[in-house]
């Protein structure tokens, strides 16, 4: 009998381990990946999460939403990657509840188009506003009058994909602030509403 007990325990150990694993509490991390610059959602961001030596990943949807499920309690390193944005890492600790409906900000990499480049253009009196109106580009009859009156040039990317769209928005919004400070709000009455960043 004594010889059979170790054998019996050896046979039962995988079943006991599996039962403990199946009963272990799991959690969810979810939310929306957004631009730290504008708060706009970032579509199709790549999200990887690492715990100890195990790394897994998923992709956000077209609205920046993602869900990481079947996670056990502990600390996870989350990494967010998207074209036109800086890789962003954060550490999150799961204890006894899910972390859901949270915004996860990702830093924008702005070079040619940025708040700083807009201020440089304003000081140099070569103010621009950038559009992405489709193909063919949309022209408003009021564009020429607006450009002449407020000394602003419209540049239209048509249907080209702009990976750093948030940078374009940041540039435009800096120009909007300048126009408000210089002309009050009257410029808005004759302004086309489809310029990115305009509210």
TrEMBL record:
Pfam families: CarboxypepD_reg. Gene3D superfamilies: Carboxypeptidase-like, regulatory domain. Keywords: Signal. It comes from the Bacteria. GO terms for molecular function: carbohydrate binding. Residues 1-19 form the signal peptide. This is Carboxypeptidase-like regulatory domain-containing protein.
């Amino acid at each position: 009998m004594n010889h059979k007990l170790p054998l019996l325990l050896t046979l039962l150990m995988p079943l006991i381990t599996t039962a403990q694993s199946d009963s272990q509490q799991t959690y969810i991390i979810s939310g929306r990946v957004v631009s730290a610059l504008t708060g706009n959602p970032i579509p199709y961001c790549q999200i990887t999460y690492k715990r100890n030596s195990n790394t897994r990943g998923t992709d956000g949807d077209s609205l920046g939403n993602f869900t990481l499920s079947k996670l056990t309690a502990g600390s996870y390193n989350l990494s967010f990657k998207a074209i036109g944005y800086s890789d962003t890492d954060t550490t999150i600790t799961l204890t006894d509840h899910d972390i859901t409906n949270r915004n996860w900000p990702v830093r924008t990499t702005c070079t040619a188009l940025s708040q700083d480049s807009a201020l440089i253009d304003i000081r140099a009196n070569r103010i621009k506003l950038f559009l992405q109106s489709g193909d063919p580009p949309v022209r408003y009859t009021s564009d020429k009058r607006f450009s002449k009156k407020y000394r602003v040039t419209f540049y239209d990317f048509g249907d080209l994909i702009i990976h750093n769209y948030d940078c374009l928005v940041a540039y435009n919004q800096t120009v909007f602030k300048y126009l408000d400070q210089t002309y009050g709000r009257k410029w808005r009455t004759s302004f086309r509403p489809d310029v990115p960043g305009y509210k």
